[in-house]
């Protein structure tokens, strides 16, 4: 990523990225012709001015006239073209730097001469392209002046209305109004045609015609017919708190005054008062019988999106009670950008939320149009793509990834994307886009030429402009190909379900992003030209049988390499060490590569394997990755390996260096003992936040672990004793704990979580051949609990009937899973234990519904796995 600002956006195209590259060209010491340097300076100055106007246009996007939109679109397209040209020019400059080509002698001279000729021809072609692009910039500048765009934007942005000019209309007396009776009575007739159902009537016209006055007179005339009514006037920038307060006072004159700032209380009062007053039929029991099933379907397709439900309800009030019309409305939801009047109306309503987004969030939301309908998008995966695309701006000392998560959360909070899965700490880690929102953003992305989509439903949605981001879903298609599409300008390519009809990668020379998703039929031969993708920054492959070519080392700008689902790859090519700008390496049980120390920009690496074939030097180099924040490692050096001590010592040394640098998240997996970490490693107390040590249990909790003051997540296999819970219970920030051990302890079979233990813990999973009890005051913030009980020991503990496990003391509990081991227990004892759990849960404030599983010896191995 170049710079700290947003490099690419839907509002300004590639302009920011282009300006950064032009500035770099002028600063770097290239052997550039003076005339070319002047041309580059001219491009930079002119484009800087145009970029400033593009950013101002983005502030008034909803109100732009067609002429301004066309100029903006042409300038954005031009930014992409110029950046492609500058990228190729930069590549040629770098390639032409002094070096020793082809060896010595006649052949070396010959190869050097041929290369020089090629460079001269290439630079001549680039020079001609730049002249053509310069002419386009000059013409765009002339049009800007002819259209007077700057003054038009200034008028839009500086237009301030000091007061709401409709205010006097709210208090106009009837006898002071001339000619009001006839239009007022016409509107009343439209509203009440004898069908006894509510209607919406719009009064439209230019400012000053008396629309507000007329509406107020209609309200005064027929308002007494309604037991719940309100009249409010909304300015262009309304104070929503005052609007809600005004409505509440008008519909319920008995409500007391709510102090300023209590928006939530006002809304709650309104919701309570208006409940069952109206949706579509006045109340649910008045819904016509023939429409109930289809109404339920429509609500389900609205997916809980408040704006969608309200908008759909408003739309349905205009429909008759004929089932065919309602079926038509239902089928229109999720129909994409097909021309449909109901969909267009819905998009206009939802556009209010879209235009309320800041520019950077609009870009990130539009990008989600690349994914198929109902596709569940992982948060980290999405954020990595945003980062690689240049959509994220670093802010307040946060990393790009941390800032991207803030963008993601804001889209969740605004209900523009829907949460699917949530982590232990309440953070959403996957989402999907509601059908209605997807329709909207597909429409907007196509209109802006931001994304081009080819699916089995839309066949070919090829815009009239050049294609920059292409999403191709081959599901259910046999013959649809992209050969008719010009692909030379495509920067982002998503291929869902690979087809043999896809054009080769050599057809995409401008590619920055390549995502081959869910392509089990993808063959390694498709990647043979990947080394030619000079600008590639992001590569993700999901395929079961594929190998990575050695040409991967040619991708000098690659930042993210995601091979998580490539189960056939166990070793990376030797050339991986050439990727000096690589920040994120997402793999699954791939051997720690030789030359890993060359990857000095690496911040994320998981999950790599250290086994007999791993060189000791690679383990030593691991410690030099001082920017590494996340590491996942599978340790496969057995206890009887002759060089185990050498491997262990180098590993501990590297972990120590990483721990003193930036390491925050560490996962260690091993089928062998990791007890060599107990006393030999001591990470700094204020860096590590997440720690996992699994696969083989530790004999005890390491002393150094108690000093991890910022540790929030711990997944550990350890021999559990009462003192183990005491140590873990004192961790000051621990929110998630998964505690597992298959080590049998034949002493005391009961463990107690003491009063005051685990003050911050929210989720606890305990898998052990021992039983748990909870004292009053233990785990005061615990929301999710999963543990097991050995039924016959539970009865023996109490002597008579089931024991009191203390579940009733877990006052914050919302989710409970209890696995009951039934071997050697009588049925009545198991049933009594389950009844006791239900009784304890019923006493909790949140009244969680427990999930109870019974299992026996034969099922235990599966449960352990």
Q: Give unreliable regions as ranges.
A: 98-103, 159-168, 457-463, 860-865
Summed up, the helix count is 23
Q: Compute the average pLDDT.
A: 82
**Beta-strand share of residues:** 5-15%
Radius of gyration of CA atoms, rounded to a whole number:
33 Å
Main sheet specs: 17 strands, parallel
Shape: flat
Class from secondary-structure proportions: alpha/beta
What level of helicity do the residues show? 25-40%
Q: Count the strands?
A: 22
Give the termini distance in whole angstroms. 42 Å
3D architecture notes:
The chain is α/β, with parallel strands linked by helices. Among the domains are: 15-158, no CATH class; 167-287, no CATH class; 288-333; 341-447, Arc Repressor Mutant, subunit A, CATH 1.10.10.10; 719-865. The protein has 23 helices and 22 strands. It has a 17-stranded parallel β-sheet. α1 (15-27) packs antiparallel against α2 (34-59), α8 runs parallel beside α9 and α10 runs parallel beside α12. The relative contact order is 0.04.
For this entry, give a set of tags.
disordered C terminus; three-stranded antiparallel sheet; single chain; 17-stranded parallel sheet
Topology of this structure?
Elements: H1 15-27, H2 34-59, H3 66-95, H4 105-147, H5 149-158, H6 181-191, H7 211-222, H8 240-251, H9 263-274, H10 292-302, H11 306-316, H12 323-332, H13 341-355, H14 359-367, E1 377-378, H15 379-389, H16 400-413, E2 418-422, E3 428-432, H17 435-447, E4 452-454, E5 469-473, E6 492-496, E7 513-517, E8 538-541, E9 560-562, E10 584-591, E11 604-610, H18 616-622, E12 630-635, H19 644-659, E13 665-669, E14 690-698, E15 713-718, H20 722-729, E16 736-740, E17 750-753, E18 763-767, E19 771-774, E20 784-790, H21 791-798, E21 815-821, H22 827-842, E22 851-855, H23 857-864
Parallel strand pairs: 4-5, 5-6, 6-7, 7-8, 8-9, 9-10, 10-11, 11-12, 12-13, 13-14, 14-15, 15-16, 16-18, 17-19, 18-20, 20-21, 21-22
Antiparallel strand pairs: 1-3, 2-3
Helix pairs in contact: 1-2, 1-3, 2-4, 2-5, 3-4, 6-7, 8-9, 10-12, 11-13, 13-17, 15-16, 18-19
């Amino acid at each position: 990523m170049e710079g700290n600002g947003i490099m690419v956006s839907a509002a300004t195209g590639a302009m920011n990225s282009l300006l950064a590259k032009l500035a770099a060209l002028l600063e770097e010491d290239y052997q550039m012709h003076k005339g070319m340097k002047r041309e580059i300076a001219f491009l930079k100055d002119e484009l800087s001015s145009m970029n400033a106007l593009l950013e101002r246009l983005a502030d008034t996007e909803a109100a732009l006239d067609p002429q301004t939109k066309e100029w903006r679109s042409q300038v954005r397209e031009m930014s992409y073209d110029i950046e492609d040209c500058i990228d190729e020019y930069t590549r040629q400059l770098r390639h032409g730097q002094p070096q020793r080509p082809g060896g010595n002698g006649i052949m070396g001279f010959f190869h050097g001469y041929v290369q020089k000729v090629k460079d001269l021809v290439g630079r001549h072609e680039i020079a001609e392209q730049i002249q053509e692009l310069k002419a386009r910039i000059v013409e765009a500048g002339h049009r800007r002046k002819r259209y007077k765009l700057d003054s038009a934007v200034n008028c839009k942005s500086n237009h301030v209305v000091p007061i709401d000019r409709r205010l006097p209309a709210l208090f106009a007396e009837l006898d002071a109004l001339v000619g009001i009776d006839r239009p007022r009575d016409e509107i009343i007739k439209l509203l009440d045609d004898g069908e006894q159902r509510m209607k919406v009537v719009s009064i439209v016209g230019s400012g000053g015609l008396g629309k507000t006055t007329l509406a107020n007179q209609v309200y005064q005339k027929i308002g007494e017919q309604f037991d719940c009514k309100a009249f409010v006037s909304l300015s262009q920038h309304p104070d929503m708190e005052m609007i809600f307060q005004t409505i509440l006072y008008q519909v319920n004159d008995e409500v007391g005054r709510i102090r300023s700032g209590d928006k939530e209380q006002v809304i709650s009062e309104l919701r309570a008062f208006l409940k069952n007053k109206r949706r579509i039929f006045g109340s649910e029991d008045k819904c016509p019988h023939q429409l109930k099933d289809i109404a339920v379907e429509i609500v389900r397709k609205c997916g809980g999106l408040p704006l969608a439900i309200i908008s759909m309800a408003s739309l349905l009030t205009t429909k008759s009670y004929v089932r065919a019309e309602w079926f038509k409305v239902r089928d229109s939801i999720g129909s994409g950008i097909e021309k449909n009047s109901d969909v267009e109306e819905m998009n206009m309503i939802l556009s209010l939320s879209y235009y309320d987004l800041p520019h950077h969030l609009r870009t990130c939301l539009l990008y989600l149009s690349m994914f198929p309908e109902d596709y569940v998008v992982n948060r980290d995966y999405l954020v990595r793509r945003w980062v690689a695309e240049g959509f994220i701006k670093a802010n307040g000392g946060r990393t790009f990834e941390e800032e991207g998560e803030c963008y993601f959360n804001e889209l969740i909070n605004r209900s523009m994307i829907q949460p699917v899965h949530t982590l232990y700490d309440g953070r959403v880690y996957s989402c999907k886009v509601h059908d209605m929102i997807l329709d909207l953003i597909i429409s907007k992305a196509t209109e802006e030429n931001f994304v081009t989509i080819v699916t089995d439903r839309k066949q070919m949605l090829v815009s009239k402009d050049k294609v920059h981001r292409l999403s191709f879903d081959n599901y259910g298609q046999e013959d649809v190909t992209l050969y008719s599409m010009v692909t030379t300008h495509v920067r982002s390519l998503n291929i869902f379900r690979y087809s043999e009809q896809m054009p080769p990668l050599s057809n995409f020379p401008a590619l920055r992003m390549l995502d081959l998703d869910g392509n089990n039929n993808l063959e390694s031969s498709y990647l043979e030209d990947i080394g030619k993708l000079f600008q590639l920054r992001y590569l993700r492959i999901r395929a079961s049988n594929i190998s990575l070519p050695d040409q991967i080392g040619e991708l000098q700008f690659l930042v993210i390499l995601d091979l998580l689902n490539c189960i056939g790859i166990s070793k990376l090519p030797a050339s991986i060490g050439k990727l000096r700008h690589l920040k994120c390496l997402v793999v699954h049980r791939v051997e720690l590569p030789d030359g890993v120390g060359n990857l000095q920009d690496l911040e994320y690496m998981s999950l790599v394997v250290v086994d007999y074939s791993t060189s000791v030097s690679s383990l030593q180099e691991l410690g030099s990755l001082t920017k590494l924040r996340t590491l996942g490692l599978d340790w496969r050096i057995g206890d009887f390996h002759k060089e185990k001590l050498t491997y262990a010592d180098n590993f501990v040394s590297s972990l120590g260096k990483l721990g003193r640098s930036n390491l925050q998240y560490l996962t260690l997996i091993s089928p062998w003992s990791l007890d060599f970490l107990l006393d030999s490693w001591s990470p700094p107390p204020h860096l590590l936040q997440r720690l996992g040590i699994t696969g083989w249990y530790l004999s005890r909790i390491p002393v150094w672990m108690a000093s991890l003051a910022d540790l929030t997540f711990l997944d550990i296999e350890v021999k559990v004793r009462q003192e183990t819970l005491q140590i873990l219970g004192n961790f000051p920030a621990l929110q998630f704990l998964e505690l597992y051990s298959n080590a049998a302890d034949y002493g005391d079979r009961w463990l107690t979580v003491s009063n005051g233990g685990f003050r911050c813990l929210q989720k606890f999973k305990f898998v052990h051949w021992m039983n748990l009890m909870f004292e009053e005051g233990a785990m005061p913030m615990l929301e999710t609990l999963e543990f097991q009980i050995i039924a016959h020991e539970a009865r023996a503990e109490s002597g008579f009937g089931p024991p009191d496990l203390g579940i009733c003391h877990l006052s914050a509990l919302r989710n409970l899973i209890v696995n009951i081991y039934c071997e050697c227990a009588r049925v009545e004892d198991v049933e009594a234990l389950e009844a006791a759990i239900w009784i304890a849960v019923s006493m909790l404030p949140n009244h969680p519904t427990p999930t109870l599983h019974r299992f026996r010896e034969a099922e235990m191995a599966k449960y352990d796995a």
